[in-house]
Design goal:
479 residues, alpha/beta, Rossmann fold, 4 domains, 5-stranded parallel beta sheet, two-stranded antiparallel sheet, 13% strand, flat
């Protein structure tokens, strides 16, 4: 498999991030270089590559300016395992809560899911054909059209001189099948064509599927099975309690059965050891962990209370970021070459208040700028996933043609920017509040406005948000 980052130069990475994030060029350049350096390391010899460690990045800036979106889009570009965690969810070893090593186990799980999804695409057609074949057999059995029918009591009949003789009708049984062999073959062909043409998707059918409700084995422990060195899945298989060993008959629609059976058939076609091996390699060499709210674990200087645990989390986090071996259900995973991106607003603390050792593991620091009113206008209009495009698509499902004028966008941006200045600066998330408030009544009545055109201009914004929409005294209560 070719490295997806091979053709991604830093300039191309930055250009791709521009499609979703407005501004923040310094942050984009920093993560683009970090991503390209991972590809460069793979081109080195094995001995030298082991000593080339990633330059972890600390993103500093208020909420809603694009820190998380930059990390998420970067992982998508590189097809790399990605995990976003909150630093505040972890506790020091010895305290109740999750230990920081669990983020590595979660990253490996994400890597396995990512590789498995890619492998499923390769067997898509075979799995779909096998699932459809199982559904067809179930439909033929219910209709009494199976190619071979054993003469069992209550069965559809038996072959006598080339003619199927029907048995006495059973209350609640399906209608009798055609008796002539030619008619039976024609009925089977017709059923097969209807199934392939998706004309039976809502028809109920009984199929045998894996029992996903099989109880899983859990060993009591403060950190769960994995940290105790116990592979619960292996024990379940040893004792015959694995969900894969249990099946049950369920009555589903053909569409539901097609989805479940497709997953089962795809799972049979996959090479699971190869998936795990590739996932471990990608987690260790390409994995990206985004640690948000890292400023919230800075100690305030007191000698007791939760601050002790905060500094303890920093110490525990240090070993993971610095590079260590973490036990997972798939084996030991080293974190030496995992790229860690940390982010925080640092309103009440400064980055140099982190313990020195942890500061040293984030050598690249980037300050993200607060968004301006002009940035808000661009955010509403330019990104591929812009809020305005989302609302236009949502209204189109109701047959309503929604559009925004430049004046309307500028008025919405002005209100959002003023609200951030007068209350709390929550960045681009303020646009969600403004837009939802502006379009609330229109969204409620959209189902009754089919065929209408709605233009969101400056006048409509003032009507929906009121003439005092930018009144400093009312902003805290309205927005």
């Amino acid at each position: 498999m070719t490295d997806p980052a091979e053709n991604l130069t830093p300039r191309e990475i930055t250009r791709a991030l521009d499609d979703y994030i407005i501004g923040q060029q310094k942050a984009k350049r920093a993560v683009a270089v970090a991503l390209r350096n991972r590809w460069r390391r793979r081109q080195l010899g094995a001995e030298l590559a082991q000593d080339v460690y990633p330059k972890n990045i600390l993103l500093i800036g208020p909420t809603g300016v694009g820190k998380t979106e930059i990390a998420r889009r970067l992982a998508t570009l590189a097809r790399a395992p990605f995990l976003k965690v909150e630093a505040t969810k972890y506790s020091e070893v010895g305290y109740h809560g999750r230990d920081v090593e669990s983020m590595v186990r979660d990253l490996v799980d994400a890597a396995v899911a990512l590789v498995r999804a890619e492998q499923v695409k390769d067997v898509e057609q075979k799995a779909a054909a096998a699932a459809e074949h199982r559904i067809l057999r179930a439909l033929l059995d219910e209709a009494g059209l199976a190619e071979y029918q054993d003469p069992v009591p209550g069965g559809p009949g038996q072959l006598e001189g080339g003619i199927w003789r029907a048995r006495p009708a059973v209350p609640g049984a399906p209608p009798p099948a055609p008796q002539d062999l030619g008619e039976r073959e024609q009925a089977r062909l017709s059923l097969r064509e209807d199934l392939a043409g998706r004309r039976l998707e809502q028809r109920p059918v009984e199929v045998e599927v894996r029992d996903a409700r099989t109880p899983t084995l859990s060993v009591m422990g403060p950190q769960g099975n994995e940290t105790m060195g116990i592979d619960a899945q292996a024990l379940q298989e040893l004792w015959g309690r694995s969900p894969g060993n249990k099946t049950k008959v369920r009555r589903l629609t053909v569409a539901e059965a097609r989805r479940l059976l497709h997953d089962e058939e795809a799972d049979k076609l996959l090479d699971h050891p190869a998936i795990v091996a590739e996932a471990l390699d990608r987690a260790q060499n390409d994995g990206i962990v985004f640690i948000d709210e890292i400023d919230k674990i800075v100690s305030s200087g007191s000698s007791d209370g939760p601050d002790v645990s905060r500094e303890g989390v920093q110490r525990d986090l240090l070993s993971v970021v610095e590079g260590c071996a973490v036990y997972t259900r798939y084996g030991h995973v080293r974190t030496d070459h995992v790229l860690f991106l940390a982010a925080g607003a640092f309103h009440f603390h400064k980055p140099n208040e982190l313990i020195p050792e942890l500061q040293g593991r984030f050598p690249v620091r980037v300050a993200l700028q607060s968004l301006t009113e002009a940035d808000f206008v661009r955010i509403l209009a330019e990104p591929k996933n812009a809020l305005t495009r989302q609302y236009v698509a949502l209204f189109r499902t109701e047959g309503v043609d929604l559009s925004f004028t430049r004046g309307g966008l500028e008025r919405l941006a002005a209100l959002a920017f003023r609200a951030n200045r007068q209350t709390q600066d929550i960045g681009a998330r303020r646009l969600m509040t403004i837009l939802e408030k502006c379009l609330e009544d229109l969204s409620f009545d959209a189902s009754e406005r089919r065929g209408q055109q709605i233009v969101v201009d400056e006048k409509l914004v003032d009507e929906r948000l009121g003439e005092t929409g930018d009144d400093a005294d009312l902003i805290p209560y309205r927005l």
